[in-house]
Amino acid sequence: MAGMVPDQTPSAAGDGYRRIVGPLLLPTWVVIGIFLVLPVALMAVYSVLTKEFRGGVDWQFSLAAYDQFFLNRGLFGDEPPTLEWTYITIFWRSIWQAAMATALCLAIGFPTAWFIATRPANTRGIWLFLITIPYWVNLLIRTVSLKFLIRDNGPLNEALMGAGLIDGPLPLVNTNLAVQLGLFYSYLPFMVLPVYAAVERYNFAYSEAAADLYASRWVTLREIVLPIVKPGIVAGCLLVFIPSLGAFLAPDLLGGAKTFMIGSLIDEQFKGSLGNWPFGAAVSMILMTLVMIALLFYARSTAKGGAA
Amino acid sequence: MKGVRHYPGFLAITILCLVVLYAPLLVIMAYSFNGSTSITTWGGFSLHWYVDVFTGAEAARFGQAAWNSLTIAIIAATASTAIATAAAVAMIRGGTFRGKRATFALINMPLMVPEIVTAVATLIFFAMIGLTTGYLTILIAHITFCIPFAYLPIAARLQGIEGHYEQAARDLYASRWQAFRLILLPLMAPGVVSGYLLAFIISLDDFIITNFVKGAGMETLPTAIFGSVKQGIKPNIMAISTLMLVVSILFVTLSYLINRKGRRAP
Fold first, then answer.
1. For a tag site, which of A116, B12, B228, B249 has the least CB within 10 Å?
2. Gap from A197 CA to chain B (nearest CA, Å)
Protein backbone atom coordinates (compact mmCIF):
# COMPACT_ATOMS: atom_id res chain seq x y z
CA MET A 1 0.00 0.00 0.00
CA ALA A 2 1.02 3.57 -0.55
CA GLY A 3 0.32 4.14 3.14
CA MET A 4 0.30 7.91 2.81
CA VAL A 5 -3.36 8.31 3.72
CA PRO A 6 -3.87 7.09 7.27
CA ASP A 7 -7.60 6.38 7.17
CA GLN A 8 -7.43 4.29 4.03
CA THR A 9 -8.81 0.78 4.22
CA PRO A 10 -7.08 -1.77 2.00
CA SER A 11 -10.25 -2.63 0.14
CA ALA A 12 -10.87 0.95 -0.93
CA ALA A 13 -7.51 1.71 -2.48
CA GLY A 14 -9.10 3.54 -5.41
CA ASP A 15 -10.68 5.81 -2.86
CA GLY A 16 -11.30 8.57 -5.38
CA TYR A 17 -14.59 6.88 -6.24
CA ARG A 18 -16.09 7.08 -2.77
CA ARG A 19 -17.33 10.62 -3.25
CA ILE A 20 -18.92 9.94 -6.66
CA VAL A 21 -20.69 6.70 -5.73
CA GLY A 22 -24.03 8.49 -6.07
CA PRO A 23 -23.56 9.75 -9.64
CA LEU A 24 -22.05 6.40 -10.69
CA LEU A 25 -25.03 4.45 -9.41
CA LEU A 26 -27.66 6.94 -10.49
CA PRO A 27 -28.21 5.42 -13.98
CA THR A 28 -28.70 1.95 -12.45
CA TRP A 29 -31.18 3.24 -9.87
CA VAL A 30 -33.09 5.24 -12.45
CA VAL A 31 -33.27 2.55 -15.15
CA ILE A 32 -34.05 -0.47 -12.95
CA GLY A 33 -36.12 1.65 -10.58
CA ILE A 34 -38.35 3.13 -13.25
CA PHE A 35 -38.48 0.26 -15.71
CA LEU A 36 -38.64 -2.72 -13.36
CA VAL A 37 -39.42 -1.85 -9.72
CA LEU A 38 -42.12 0.65 -10.61
CA PRO A 39 -43.75 -1.68 -13.20
CA VAL A 40 -43.83 -4.56 -10.70
CA ALA A 41 -45.47 -2.26 -8.13
CA LEU A 42 -47.92 -1.12 -10.79
CA MET A 43 -48.68 -4.75 -11.64
CA ALA A 44 -49.63 -5.31 -7.99
CA VAL A 45 -52.04 -2.39 -8.28
CA TYR A 46 -53.48 -3.68 -11.58
CA SER A 47 -54.23 -7.03 -9.96
CA VAL A 48 -56.82 -5.33 -7.74
CA LEU A 49 -58.48 -3.25 -10.46
CA THR A 50 -61.56 -3.95 -12.55
CA LYS A 51 -61.25 -5.64 -15.92
CA GLU A 52 -62.01 -3.52 -18.96
CA PHE A 53 -63.49 -5.39 -21.87
CA ARG A 54 -61.24 -4.24 -24.69
CA GLY A 55 -58.16 -5.32 -22.74
CA GLY A 56 -56.85 -3.01 -20.05
CA VAL A 57 -58.43 -1.85 -16.80
CA ASP A 58 -60.94 0.43 -15.16
CA TRP A 59 -59.52 2.30 -12.16
CA GLN A 60 -62.00 0.75 -9.79
CA PHE A 61 -60.85 -1.34 -6.83
CA SER A 62 -61.86 -4.98 -7.13
CA LEU A 63 -60.71 -8.34 -5.84
CA ALA A 64 -62.39 -10.07 -8.78
CA ALA A 65 -59.08 -11.37 -10.16
CA TYR A 66 -58.11 -13.16 -6.95
CA ASP A 67 -61.71 -14.26 -6.49
CA GLN A 68 -61.65 -15.81 -9.97
CA PHE A 69 -58.39 -17.57 -9.15
CA PHE A 70 -59.35 -19.11 -5.84
CA LEU A 71 -63.15 -19.33 -5.70
CA ASN A 72 -65.81 -21.00 -7.75
CA ARG A 73 -69.17 -19.27 -7.49
CA GLY A 74 -70.99 -21.33 -10.06
CA LEU A 75 -71.94 -20.45 -13.60
CA PHE A 76 -73.99 -17.38 -12.68
CA GLY A 77 -71.88 -16.30 -9.71
CA ASP A 78 -74.70 -16.67 -7.18
CA GLU A 79 -73.82 -20.01 -5.59
CA PRO A 80 -71.95 -20.22 -2.29
CA PRO A 81 -68.24 -20.08 -3.11
CA THR A 82 -66.22 -23.27 -3.15
CA LEU A 83 -62.53 -23.67 -3.87
CA GLU A 84 -61.83 -23.23 -7.60
CA TRP A 85 -59.48 -25.96 -8.79
CA THR A 86 -58.81 -24.91 -12.41
CA TYR A 87 -55.97 -22.51 -11.73
CA ILE A 88 -54.62 -24.26 -8.67
CA THR A 89 -54.33 -27.36 -10.87
CA ILE A 90 -52.36 -25.37 -13.45
CA PHE A 91 -50.04 -24.11 -10.70
CA TRP A 92 -49.72 -27.57 -9.21
CA ARG A 93 -48.88 -29.00 -12.66
CA SER A 94 -46.29 -26.27 -13.22
CA ILE A 95 -44.69 -26.97 -9.86
CA TRP A 96 -44.65 -30.69 -10.64
CA GLN A 97 -43.17 -30.17 -14.12
CA ALA A 98 -40.56 -27.77 -12.77
CA ALA A 99 -39.72 -30.22 -9.97
CA MET A 100 -39.34 -33.11 -12.44
CA ALA A 101 -37.14 -31.00 -14.69
CA THR A 102 -35.06 -30.05 -11.65
CA ALA A 103 -34.71 -33.69 -10.64
CA LEU A 104 -33.67 -34.60 -14.18
CA CYS A 105 -31.11 -31.77 -14.20
CA LEU A 106 -29.74 -32.96 -10.86
CA ALA A 107 -29.53 -36.59 -11.95
CA ILE A 108 -27.52 -35.66 -15.04
CA GLY A 109 -25.94 -32.44 -13.77
CA PHE A 110 -24.40 -33.73 -10.55
CA PRO A 111 -22.33 -36.53 -12.11
CA THR A 112 -21.33 -34.16 -14.92
CA ALA A 113 -20.26 -31.43 -12.50
CA TRP A 114 -18.39 -33.98 -10.43
CA PHE A 115 -16.65 -35.40 -13.46
CA ILE A 116 -15.57 -31.94 -14.63
CA ALA A 117 -14.39 -30.85 -11.19
CA THR A 118 -12.16 -33.93 -10.94
CA ARG A 119 -10.41 -33.27 -14.28
CA PRO A 120 -6.91 -31.71 -14.30
CA ALA A 121 -7.21 -27.96 -13.63
CA ASN A 122 -6.17 -26.94 -17.13
CA THR A 123 -8.94 -28.86 -18.92
CA ARG A 124 -11.84 -27.95 -16.60
CA GLY A 125 -12.37 -24.63 -18.38
CA ILE A 126 -12.86 -26.39 -21.71
CA TRP A 127 -15.37 -28.85 -20.23
CA LEU A 128 -17.35 -26.06 -18.59
CA PHE A 129 -17.28 -24.11 -21.80
CA LEU A 130 -18.70 -27.10 -23.69
CA ILE A 131 -21.53 -27.35 -21.18
CA THR A 132 -22.37 -23.64 -21.31
CA ILE A 133 -22.24 -23.06 -25.10
CA PRO A 134 -25.75 -24.41 -25.76
CA TYR A 135 -27.11 -22.09 -23.09
CA TRP A 136 -26.03 -19.11 -25.15
CA VAL A 137 -27.80 -20.37 -28.22
CA ASN A 138 -31.22 -18.77 -28.55
CA LEU A 139 -33.70 -20.56 -26.26
CA LEU A 140 -36.38 -20.51 -28.95
CA ILE A 141 -34.03 -22.14 -31.45
CA ARG A 142 -33.01 -24.77 -28.91
CA THR A 143 -36.62 -25.58 -28.12
CA VAL A 144 -37.56 -25.76 -31.80
CA SER A 145 -34.53 -28.00 -32.45
CA LEU A 146 -35.56 -30.33 -29.67
CA LYS A 147 -39.09 -30.50 -31.04
CA PHE A 148 -37.73 -31.28 -34.50
CA LEU A 149 -35.56 -34.04 -33.08
CA ILE A 150 -38.20 -35.80 -30.97
CA ARG A 151 -41.31 -35.34 -33.11
CA ASP A 152 -43.23 -38.40 -34.30
CA ASN A 153 -41.49 -38.75 -37.65
CA GLY A 154 -38.35 -36.94 -36.54
CA PRO A 155 -34.76 -38.17 -36.61
CA LEU A 156 -34.85 -39.71 -33.13
CA ASN A 157 -37.87 -41.90 -33.84
CA GLU A 158 -36.56 -42.80 -37.30
CA ALA A 159 -33.23 -43.81 -35.82
CA LEU A 160 -34.87 -45.89 -33.11
CA MET A 161 -37.17 -47.57 -35.61
CA GLY A 162 -34.29 -48.06 -38.05
CA ALA A 163 -32.35 -49.78 -35.31
CA GLY A 164 -35.35 -52.01 -34.70
CA LEU A 165 -35.69 -50.89 -31.08
CA ILE A 166 -39.29 -49.77 -31.48
CA ASP A 167 -42.04 -50.69 -33.95
CA GLY A 168 -43.92 -47.42 -34.15
CA PRO A 169 -42.83 -43.88 -33.33
CA LEU A 170 -42.71 -42.91 -29.66
CA PRO A 171 -45.31 -40.18 -29.21
CA LEU A 172 -43.11 -37.73 -27.32
CA VAL A 173 -44.36 -34.32 -28.43
CA ASN A 174 -47.33 -32.93 -26.46
CA THR A 175 -46.52 -35.04 -23.42
CA ASN A 176 -45.39 -34.09 -19.94
CA LEU A 177 -42.11 -35.82 -20.65
CA ALA A 178 -41.46 -33.58 -23.67
CA VAL A 179 -42.04 -30.47 -21.58
CA GLN A 180 -39.76 -31.80 -18.84
CA LEU A 181 -37.11 -32.58 -21.44
CA GLY A 182 -37.50 -29.07 -22.84
CA LEU A 183 -37.11 -27.47 -19.42
CA PHE A 184 -34.17 -29.75 -18.67
CA TYR A 185 -32.58 -28.74 -21.95
CA SER A 186 -33.25 -25.05 -21.27
CA TYR A 187 -31.71 -24.80 -17.83
CA LEU A 188 -29.22 -27.67 -17.37
CA PRO A 189 -26.15 -25.37 -17.20
CA PHE A 190 -27.76 -23.60 -14.22
CA MET A 191 -27.46 -26.88 -12.34
CA VAL A 192 -23.97 -27.85 -13.50
CA LEU A 193 -22.25 -24.54 -12.70
CA PRO A 194 -23.09 -24.10 -8.98
CA VAL A 195 -22.64 -27.83 -8.28
CA TYR A 196 -19.28 -27.68 -10.04
CA ALA A 197 -18.26 -24.67 -7.93
CA ALA A 198 -19.14 -26.60 -4.76
CA VAL A 199 -17.39 -29.83 -5.79
CA GLU A 200 -14.30 -27.90 -6.87
CA ARG A 201 -13.95 -26.53 -3.32
CA TYR A 202 -14.55 -29.95 -1.76
CA ASN A 203 -11.55 -31.31 0.10
CA PHE A 204 -10.99 -34.84 -1.17
CA ALA A 205 -9.07 -35.69 1.99
CA TYR A 206 -12.49 -36.34 3.57
CA SER A 207 -13.21 -38.98 0.94
CA GLU A 208 -9.80 -40.52 1.50
CA ALA A 209 -10.39 -40.62 5.24
CA ALA A 210 -13.74 -42.30 4.65
CA ALA A 211 -12.12 -44.80 2.28
CA ASP A 212 -9.44 -45.58 4.88
CA LEU A 213 -12.23 -46.40 7.29
CA TYR A 214 -13.67 -48.88 4.77
CA ALA A 215 -16.60 -46.77 3.58
CA SER A 216 -17.59 -47.68 0.05
CA ARG A 217 -17.63 -45.00 -2.67
CA TRP A 218 -21.36 -44.64 -2.59
CA VAL A 219 -21.57 -44.50 1.19
CA THR A 220 -18.89 -41.79 1.10
CA LEU A 221 -20.86 -39.91 -1.53
CA ARG A 222 -24.04 -40.07 0.50
CA GLU A 223 -22.66 -39.51 3.98
CA ILE A 224 -19.70 -37.19 3.37
CA VAL A 225 -19.81 -35.51 -0.04
CA LEU A 226 -23.50 -34.66 -0.38
CA PRO A 227 -23.83 -32.87 2.98
CA ILE A 228 -20.76 -30.77 2.18
CA VAL A 229 -21.67 -29.78 -1.37
CA LYS A 230 -25.35 -29.33 -0.47
CA PRO A 231 -25.32 -25.51 -0.79
CA GLY A 232 -24.24 -25.87 -4.44
CA ILE A 233 -26.94 -28.45 -5.07
CA VAL A 234 -29.62 -26.27 -3.46
CA ALA A 235 -28.49 -23.25 -5.50
CA GLY A 236 -28.55 -25.31 -8.70
CA CYS A 237 -32.00 -26.71 -7.97
CA LEU A 238 -33.35 -23.21 -7.37
CA LEU A 239 -31.74 -21.81 -10.50
CA VAL A 240 -33.46 -24.54 -12.54
CA PHE A 241 -36.74 -24.62 -10.64
CA ILE A 242 -37.52 -20.88 -10.69
CA PRO A 243 -37.26 -20.22 -14.43
CA SER A 244 -38.95 -23.58 -15.14
CA LEU A 245 -41.95 -22.58 -13.06
CA GLY A 246 -42.73 -19.56 -15.22
CA ALA A 247 -41.41 -20.98 -18.49
CA PHE A 248 -43.39 -20.26 -21.62
CA LEU A 249 -41.55 -21.62 -24.65
CA ALA A 250 -41.01 -25.23 -23.62
CA PRO A 251 -44.64 -25.89 -22.54
CA ASP A 252 -46.01 -23.89 -25.46
CA LEU A 253 -43.97 -25.54 -28.21
CA LEU A 254 -43.40 -29.03 -26.80
CA GLY A 255 -46.58 -29.49 -24.85
CA GLY A 256 -50.25 -29.48 -25.63
CA ALA A 257 -53.51 -28.62 -23.87
CA LYS A 258 -52.83 -31.26 -21.21
CA THR A 259 -49.50 -29.67 -20.27
CA PHE A 260 -50.77 -26.09 -19.95
CA MET A 261 -48.57 -24.21 -17.48
CA ILE A 262 -48.48 -20.86 -15.63
CA GLY A 263 -46.52 -19.10 -18.37
CA SER A 264 -49.18 -19.83 -20.99
CA LEU A 265 -51.98 -18.91 -18.56
CA ILE A 266 -50.43 -15.47 -18.02
CA ASP A 267 -49.64 -15.06 -21.70
CA GLU A 268 -53.28 -15.71 -22.61
CA GLN A 269 -54.53 -12.88 -20.41
CA PHE A 270 -52.71 -10.28 -22.47
CA LYS A 271 -53.56 -11.48 -25.96
CA GLY A 272 -56.35 -9.63 -27.72
CA SER A 273 -59.87 -8.97 -26.52
CA LEU A 274 -60.18 -12.32 -24.72
CA GLY A 275 -57.56 -11.17 -22.28
CA ASN A 276 -58.07 -10.13 -18.69
CA TRP A 277 -55.31 -7.82 -17.50
CA PRO A 278 -56.17 -7.76 -13.78
CA PHE A 279 -56.37 -11.55 -13.75
CA GLY A 280 -53.03 -11.82 -15.62
CA ALA A 281 -51.51 -9.41 -13.11
CA ALA A 282 -52.94 -11.42 -10.22
CA VAL A 283 -51.56 -14.71 -11.59
CA SER A 284 -48.17 -13.00 -12.06
CA MET A 285 -48.31 -11.78 -8.45
CA ILE A 286 -49.05 -15.29 -7.21
CA LEU A 287 -46.20 -16.70 -9.32
CA MET A 288 -43.82 -14.04 -8.01
CA THR A 289 -44.88 -14.78 -4.44
CA LEU A 290 -44.04 -18.46 -4.95
CA VAL A 291 -40.63 -17.53 -6.35
CA MET A 292 -39.93 -15.17 -3.46
CA ILE A 293 -40.84 -17.94 -1.00
CA ALA A 294 -38.39 -20.24 -2.77
CA LEU A 295 -35.69 -17.56 -2.62
CA LEU A 296 -36.36 -16.90 1.08
CA PHE A 297 -36.09 -20.62 1.75
CA TYR A 298 -32.77 -20.56 -0.07
CA ALA A 299 -31.51 -17.49 1.81
CA ARG A 300 -32.35 -19.16 5.11
CA SER A 301 -30.69 -22.43 4.15
CA THR A 302 -27.47 -20.66 3.09
CA ALA A 303 -27.49 -18.54 6.25
CA LYS A 304 -27.70 -21.74 8.28
CA GLY A 305 -25.01 -23.39 6.16
CA GLY A 306 -22.71 -20.41 6.69
CA ALA A 307 -23.16 -20.52 10.45
CA ALA A 308 -22.45 -24.24 10.72
CA MET B 1 -4.86 -41.12 -4.60
CA LYS B 2 -7.08 -41.04 -7.63
CA GLY B 3 -9.63 -43.58 -6.42
CA VAL B 4 -11.87 -41.35 -4.33
CA ARG B 5 -12.42 -38.92 -7.18
CA HIS B 6 -13.54 -41.61 -9.57
CA TYR B 7 -17.12 -42.81 -9.69
CA PRO B 8 -18.04 -45.45 -12.25
CA GLY B 9 -20.63 -44.20 -14.73
CA PHE B 10 -19.99 -40.50 -14.23
CA LEU B 11 -18.02 -40.25 -17.47
CA ALA B 12 -20.87 -41.97 -19.30
CA ILE B 13 -23.39 -39.53 -17.83
CA THR B 14 -21.20 -36.56 -18.80
CA ILE B 15 -21.05 -37.85 -22.34
CA LEU B 16 -24.80 -38.41 -22.31
CA CYS B 17 -25.20 -34.85 -21.05
CA LEU B 18 -23.16 -33.46 -23.93
CA VAL B 19 -25.02 -35.61 -26.46
CA VAL B 20 -28.36 -34.38 -25.15
CA LEU B 21 -27.15 -30.77 -25.26
CA TYR B 22 -25.70 -30.91 -28.73
CA ALA B 23 -27.79 -33.48 -30.62
CA PRO B 24 -30.77 -31.17 -31.33
CA LEU B 25 -28.48 -28.37 -32.49
CA LEU B 26 -26.44 -30.65 -34.73
CA VAL B 27 -29.58 -32.20 -36.20
CA ILE B 28 -31.08 -28.83 -37.05
CA MET B 29 -27.77 -27.69 -38.57
CA ALA B 30 -27.57 -30.84 -40.68
CA TYR B 31 -31.15 -30.55 -41.90
CA SER B 32 -30.68 -26.89 -42.83
CA PHE B 33 -28.47 -28.20 -45.66
CA ASN B 34 -31.19 -30.55 -46.84
CA GLY B 35 -31.88 -30.34 -50.58
CA SER B 36 -35.40 -31.74 -50.24
CA THR B 37 -38.44 -29.49 -49.73
CA SER B 38 -39.80 -31.95 -47.20
CA ILE B 39 -38.30 -31.70 -43.74
CA THR B 40 -38.55 -35.42 -43.13
CA THR B 41 -36.62 -36.86 -46.05
CA TRP B 42 -32.99 -36.21 -46.86
CA GLY B 43 -32.53 -34.93 -50.40
CA GLY B 44 -28.80 -34.45 -50.52
CA PHE B 45 -26.58 -31.55 -49.53
CA SER B 46 -27.73 -28.15 -50.73
CA LEU B 47 -27.47 -24.48 -49.83
CA HIS B 48 -30.95 -23.98 -51.22
CA TRP B 49 -32.51 -22.88 -47.91
CA TYR B 50 -29.76 -20.38 -47.23
CA VAL B 51 -30.44 -18.81 -50.62
CA ASP B 52 -34.13 -18.86 -49.70
CA VAL B 53 -33.46 -17.02 -46.44
CA PHE B 54 -31.96 -14.09 -48.34
CA THR B 55 -34.09 -14.11 -51.51
CA GLY B 56 -37.22 -16.15 -50.74
CA ALA B 57 -40.77 -15.05 -50.04
CA GLU B 58 -40.09 -14.34 -46.38
CA ALA B 59 -36.71 -12.68 -46.96
CA ALA B 60 -38.01 -9.13 -46.47
CA ARG B 61 -39.85 -9.99 -43.26
CA PHE B 62 -36.89 -11.81 -41.74
CA GLY B 63 -34.47 -9.18 -43.03
CA GLN B 64 -36.38 -6.44 -41.23
CA ALA B 65 -36.65 -8.58 -38.10
CA ALA B 66 -32.92 -9.32 -38.19
CA TRP B 67 -32.16 -5.61 -38.59
CA ASN B 68 -34.38 -4.77 -35.61
CA SER B 69 -32.80 -7.51 -33.49
CA LEU B 70 -29.30 -6.43 -34.39
CA THR B 71 -29.76 -2.70 -33.81
CA ILE B 72 -31.66 -3.29 -30.56
CA ALA B 73 -28.95 -5.68 -29.35
CA ILE B 74 -26.17 -3.20 -30.20
CA ILE B 75 -27.86 -0.22 -28.53
CA ALA B 76 -29.09 -2.21 -25.53
CA ALA B 77 -25.70 -3.85 -24.98
CA THR B 78 -23.89 -0.50 -25.27
CA ALA B 79 -26.24 1.30 -22.87
CA SER B 80 -26.42 -1.51 -20.32
CA THR B 81 -22.62 -2.01 -20.40
CA ALA B 82 -22.05 1.71 -19.75
CA ILE B 83 -24.54 1.68 -16.87
CA ALA B 84 -23.13 -1.57 -15.48
CA THR B 85 -19.52 -0.34 -15.71
CA ALA B 86 -20.33 2.78 -13.67
CA ALA B 87 -22.26 0.65 -11.18
CA ALA B 88 -19.43 -1.90 -10.88
CA VAL B 89 -16.83 0.83 -10.21
CA ALA B 90 -19.06 2.28 -7.48
CA MET B 91 -19.86 -1.11 -5.94
CA ILE B 92 -16.32 -2.52 -5.96
CA ARG B 93 -14.26 0.66 -5.56
CA GLY B 94 -16.63 2.89 -3.63
CA GLY B 95 -15.97 1.32 -0.22
CA THR B 96 -18.96 0.87 2.07
CA PHE B 97 -21.87 3.24 1.73
CA ARG B 98 -25.50 3.39 2.73
CA GLY B 99 -27.80 1.42 0.51
CA LYS B 100 -25.07 -0.82 -0.90
CA ARG B 101 -26.96 -4.03 -0.19
CA ALA B 102 -30.16 -2.57 -1.59
CA THR B 103 -28.30 -1.49 -4.73
CA PHE B 104 -26.87 -4.97 -5.10
CA ALA B 105 -30.36 -6.42 -4.83
CA LEU B 106 -31.60 -3.87 -7.37
CA ILE B 107 -28.90 -4.78 -9.90
CA ASN B 108 -29.79 -8.46 -9.56
CA MET B 109 -33.53 -7.92 -9.61
CA PRO B 110 -33.92 -8.64 -13.35
CA LEU B 111 -32.45 -12.10 -12.62
CA MET B 112 -34.75 -12.76 -9.64
CA VAL B 113 -38.11 -11.80 -11.11
CA PRO B 114 -39.45 -14.50 -13.46
CA GLU B 115 -39.19 -13.37 -17.08
CA ILE B 116 -42.90 -13.63 -17.73
CA VAL B 117 -43.61 -11.44 -14.70
CA THR B 118 -41.16 -8.81 -15.96
CA ALA B 119 -42.91 -9.00 -19.33
CA VAL B 120 -46.35 -8.44 -17.80
CA ALA B 121 -45.17 -5.64 -15.50
CA THR B 122 -43.36 -3.84 -18.32
CA LEU B 123 -46.36 -4.06 -20.63
CA ILE B 124 -48.65 -2.69 -17.92
CA PHE B 125 -46.20 0.15 -17.24
CA PHE B 126 -46.00 1.18 -20.90
CA ALA B 127 -49.79 0.95 -21.28
CA MET B 128 -50.23 3.06 -18.17
CA ILE B 129 -47.90 5.89 -19.23
CA GLY B 130 -49.39 5.71 -22.72
CA LEU B 131 -46.19 4.85 -24.58
CA THR B 132 -47.09 3.02 -27.80
CA THR B 133 -45.44 -0.38 -27.85
CA GLY B 134 -42.83 -0.76 -30.58
CA TYR B 135 -39.11 -0.39 -31.17
CA LEU B 136 -38.56 2.04 -28.29
CA THR B 137 -40.37 -0.06 -25.70
CA ILE B 138 -38.43 -3.17 -26.71
CA LEU B 139 -35.21 -1.19 -26.43
CA ILE B 140 -36.02 0.14 -22.94
CA ALA B 141 -36.96 -3.34 -21.70
CA HIS B 142 -33.78 -4.85 -23.15
CA ILE B 143 -31.50 -2.21 -21.61
CA THR B 144 -33.09 -2.93 -18.22
CA PHE B 145 -32.75 -6.71 -18.18
CA CYS B 146 -29.27 -6.68 -19.76
CA ILE B 147 -27.76 -4.68 -16.85
CA PRO B 148 -27.07 -7.63 -14.50
CA PHE B 149 -25.62 -9.71 -17.34
CA ALA B 150 -23.20 -6.92 -18.22
CA TYR B 151 -22.51 -6.23 -14.54
CA LEU B 152 -21.45 -9.72 -13.45
CA PRO B 153 -18.31 -10.16 -15.59
CA ILE B 154 -17.29 -6.52 -15.13
CA ALA B 155 -17.59 -6.70 -11.34
CA ALA B 156 -15.78 -10.06 -11.26
CA ARG B 157 -12.92 -8.59 -13.27
CA LEU B 158 -12.76 -5.43 -11.17
CA GLN B 159 -12.60 -7.48 -7.98
CA GLY B 160 -9.40 -9.10 -9.23
CA ILE B 161 -7.61 -5.79 -9.90
CA GLU B 162 -5.69 -4.53 -6.91
CA GLY B 163 -5.83 -0.87 -5.96
CA HIS B 164 -2.04 -0.31 -6.14
CA TYR B 165 -2.02 0.67 -9.79
CA GLU B 166 -4.50 3.49 -9.43
CA GLN B 167 -2.95 4.50 -6.12
CA ALA B 168 0.44 4.82 -7.82
CA ALA B 169 -1.09 6.91 -10.58
CA ARG B 170 -2.85 9.13 -8.06
CA ASP B 171 0.42 9.52 -6.08
CA LEU B 172 2.01 10.71 -9.32
CA TYR B 173 -0.61 13.46 -9.60
CA ALA B 174 -2.94 11.80 -12.09
CA SER B 175 -6.45 13.17 -11.78
CA ARG B 176 -9.21 10.77 -10.81
CA TRP B 177 -10.42 10.73 -14.41
CA GLN B 178 -6.89 10.13 -15.76
CA ALA B 179 -6.35 7.30 -13.28
CA PHE B 180 -9.60 5.75 -14.42
CA ARG B 181 -9.09 6.22 -18.15
CA LEU B 182 -5.40 5.33 -18.33
CA ILE B 183 -5.10 2.72 -15.59
CA LEU B 184 -8.34 1.15 -14.42
CA LEU B 185 -10.28 1.07 -17.68
CA PRO B 186 -7.55 -0.75 -19.67
CA LEU B 187 -7.16 -3.23 -16.80
CA MET B 188 -10.88 -3.93 -16.59
CA ALA B 189 -11.35 -3.93 -20.38
CA PRO B 190 -11.63 -7.74 -20.73
CA GLY B 191 -14.48 -7.72 -18.21
CA VAL B 192 -16.19 -4.86 -20.02
CA VAL B 193 -15.91 -6.58 -23.40
CA SER B 194 -17.11 -9.83 -21.89
CA GLY B 195 -20.08 -8.05 -20.30
CA TYR B 196 -20.90 -6.33 -23.56
CA LEU B 197 -20.91 -9.58 -25.50
CA LEU B 198 -23.09 -11.34 -22.94
CA ALA B 199 -25.56 -8.45 -22.88
CA PHE B 200 -25.60 -8.52 -26.68
CA ILE B 201 -26.45 -12.23 -26.79
CA ILE B 202 -29.04 -11.94 -24.01
CA SER B 203 -30.75 -9.15 -25.95
CA LEU B 204 -30.61 -11.10 -29.21
CA ASP B 205 -31.94 -14.16 -27.39
CA ASP B 206 -34.94 -12.66 -25.67
CA PHE B 207 -38.36 -13.83 -26.72
CA ILE B 208 -40.84 -13.58 -23.84
CA ILE B 209 -40.39 -9.95 -22.81
CA THR B 210 -40.02 -8.78 -26.42
CA ASN B 211 -43.19 -10.62 -27.38
CA PHE B 212 -45.12 -8.70 -24.73
CA VAL B 213 -43.81 -5.19 -25.43
CA LYS B 214 -43.25 -5.31 -29.20
CA GLY B 215 -46.68 -4.17 -30.29
CA ALA B 216 -48.38 -5.13 -33.55
CA GLY B 217 -46.34 -5.29 -36.74
CA MET B 218 -43.00 -5.03 -34.96
CA GLU B 219 -40.82 -8.14 -35.08
CA THR B 220 -37.42 -9.21 -33.84
CA LEU B 221 -35.84 -12.44 -35.10
CA PRO B 222 -37.08 -14.60 -32.22
CA THR B 223 -40.67 -13.32 -32.47
CA ALA B 224 -40.62 -13.70 -36.29
CA ILE B 225 -39.28 -17.25 -35.95
CA PHE B 226 -41.88 -18.04 -33.28
CA GLY B 227 -44.63 -16.81 -35.59
CA SER B 228 -43.40 -19.08 -38.39
CA VAL B 229 -42.81 -22.11 -36.18
CA LYS B 230 -46.42 -22.00 -34.99
CA GLN B 231 -47.34 -23.17 -38.52
CA GLY B 232 -44.72 -25.92 -38.46
CA ILE B 233 -40.95 -26.10 -38.70
CA LYS B 234 -39.93 -25.17 -42.23
CA PRO B 235 -36.44 -25.65 -43.66
CA ASN B 236 -35.80 -21.92 -44.05
CA ILE B 237 -36.32 -21.59 -40.27
CA MET B 238 -33.59 -24.19 -39.82
CA ALA B 239 -31.25 -22.17 -42.01
CA ILE B 240 -31.99 -18.98 -40.04
CA SER B 241 -31.59 -20.89 -36.78
CA THR B 242 -28.24 -22.25 -37.92
CA LEU B 243 -27.05 -18.76 -38.82
CA MET B 244 -28.12 -17.39 -35.43
CA LEU B 245 -26.60 -20.38 -33.69
CA VAL B 246 -23.26 -19.76 -35.37
CA VAL B 247 -23.35 -16.07 -34.45
CA SER B 248 -24.11 -16.89 -30.78
CA ILE B 249 -21.38 -19.49 -30.55
CA LEU B 250 -18.91 -17.14 -32.21
CA PHE B 251 -19.71 -14.40 -29.69
CA VAL B 252 -19.49 -16.65 -26.66
CA THR B 253 -16.22 -18.17 -27.84
CA LEU B 254 -14.86 -14.67 -28.34
CA SER B 255 -16.00 -13.65 -24.86
CA TYR B 256 -14.42 -16.78 -23.38
CA LEU B 257 -11.10 -16.23 -25.14
CA ILE B 258 -10.94 -12.54 -24.19
CA ASN B 259 -11.68 -13.37 -20.59
CA ARG B 260 -9.06 -16.11 -20.48
CA LYS B 261 -6.45 -13.88 -22.02
CA GLY B 262 -7.38 -11.15 -19.54
CA ARG B 263 -6.94 -13.52 -16.64
CA ARG B 264 -3.41 -14.41 -17.69
CA ALA B 265 -2.38 -10.74 -17.75
CA PRO B 266 -1.22 -9.17 -14.44
1. B12
2. 15
- Per-residue confidence band for B43, with pLDDT thresholds at 50, 70 and 90: confident
Nearest residue, CB atoms, B40 vs list A153, A242, A253: A153
- Quote ipTM for the complex: 0.86
Instruction: Give every CB contact of residue B51 below 8 A, 6+ residues apart in sequence.
Output: none
Q: How far is CA B76 from CA A24, A239, B71, B142, in A?
A: 19, 25, 8, 6
**Looking at chain B, which residue has its C-alpha nearest residue A111?**
B10
Burial class (CB in 10 A: 0-12, 13-18, 19+), A215: middle
HEC letters along chain A? CCCCCCCCCHHHCCHHHHHHHHHHHHHHHHHHHHHHHHHHHHHHHHCCEEECCCCCEEEEECCHHHHHHHEECCCCCCCCCEECCHHHHHHHHHHHHHHHHHHHHHHHHHHHHHHHHCCCHHHHHHHHHHHHHHHHCCHHHHHHHHHHHHCCCCHHHHHHHHCCCCCCCCCCCCCHHHHHHHHHHHHHHHHHHHHHHHHHHCCCHHHHHHHHCCCCHHHHHHHHHHHHHHHHHHHHHHHHHHHHHCCCHHHHHHCCHHHCCHHHHHHHHCCHHHCCHHHHHHHHHHHHHHHHHHHHHHHHHHHHHHHC
Q: Give the mean model confidence (pLDDT) for residues A219-248.
A: 89
